[in-house]
Amino acid sequence: SQQGEEDPQALSIQEGENATMNCSYKTSINNLQWYRQNSGRGLVHLILIRSNEREKHSGRLRVTLDTSKKSSSLLITASRAADTASYFCATAGGNTDKLIFGTGTRLQVFP
Amino acid sequence: EAEVAQSPRYKITEKSQAVAFWCDPISGHATLYWYRQILGQGPELLVQFQDESVVDDSQLPKDRFSAERLKGVDSTLKIQPAELGDSAMYLCASSARQGARYEQYFGPGTRLTVT
């Protein structure tokens, strides 16, 4: 079963623009992680944010977490064509120690 | 850079046949995961190993799926007999430590098509 739902399901932007993806989840968590998946490939870990953190940065990535709303957002600034991929949030915690992935956002960045 | 290896990358099989996938985790990673990813969805955990022991196989359809990691290193996931609904990407991941707070490293996956 999927824990998280991501919004939007698909997003198309031009190079240089910012891309924002949102993730909502249902149960309490210990941490939330974001992964990227290029077409037909495995997933690559991008960033982990703990439940006691509100914001985290890594290069052009900015992640926020609002545990009161059970939601997180991933912002990619100054997007590049190479950022074209699917992005998944995954939650850990509650009554389970396994990662539960959301449904993903498909990002297309046009050069 | 160390990577998780999986083979084959693609597999086409007829329903009712047996199929097997292989995974070699990053050297030294004690925790190994098998996920199934249906097209358009996120991965779902099938089975988790800590060394050679199964930690979680609650979502593994045990009537047709089996997984083993005999020496605590590489692992095999088997489906027998395959059904049309098994068509999906099968992903293997490993991590240095057990627990969802640790980063998981994914292999390229095996795309299974059952006809």
Counting copies of identical and different chains, the oligomeric state is: heterodimer
User: What is the CA-CA span between the terminal residues of chain A?
Assistant: 36 Å
Low-confidence stretches of chain B: none
Label the structural class of chain B. Answer: mainly beta
Q: Biggest interface in this structure?
A: A-B, 27 and 25 residues
Give the strand content of chain A: over 45%
Indicate the mean pLDDT of chain A.
92
Q: Structural class given helices, strands, pairing of chain A? A: mainly beta
Straight-line distance between termini of chain B: 37 Å
Helix and strand element order of chain B:
EEEEEEEEEEE
Helix content of chain B: under 10%
The count of helical stretches of chain A stands at 0
User: Main sheet of chain B?
Assistant: 7 strands, mixed
Arithmetic mean pLDDT of chain B:
94
Question: Topology, pairings included?
Answer:
The complex is a heterodimer of chains A (111) and B (115).
Chain A: E1 5-7, E2 10-14, E3 19-24, E4 31-37, E5 43-50, E6 55-58, E7 61-66, E8 71-76, E9 85-93, E10 96-101, E11 105-110
Parallel strand pairs in A: 2-11
Antiparallel strand pairs in A: 1-3, 3-8, 4-5, 4-9, 6-7, 7-8, 9-10, 9-11
Chain B: E1 5-7, E2 10-13, E3 19-24, E4 31-37, E5 44-50, E6 53-56, E7 65-68, E8 75-79, E9 88-95, E10 105-106, E11 110-114
Parallel strand pairs in B: 2-11
Antiparallel strand pairs in B: 1-3, 3-8, 4-5, 4-9, 5-6, 7-8, 9-10, 9-11
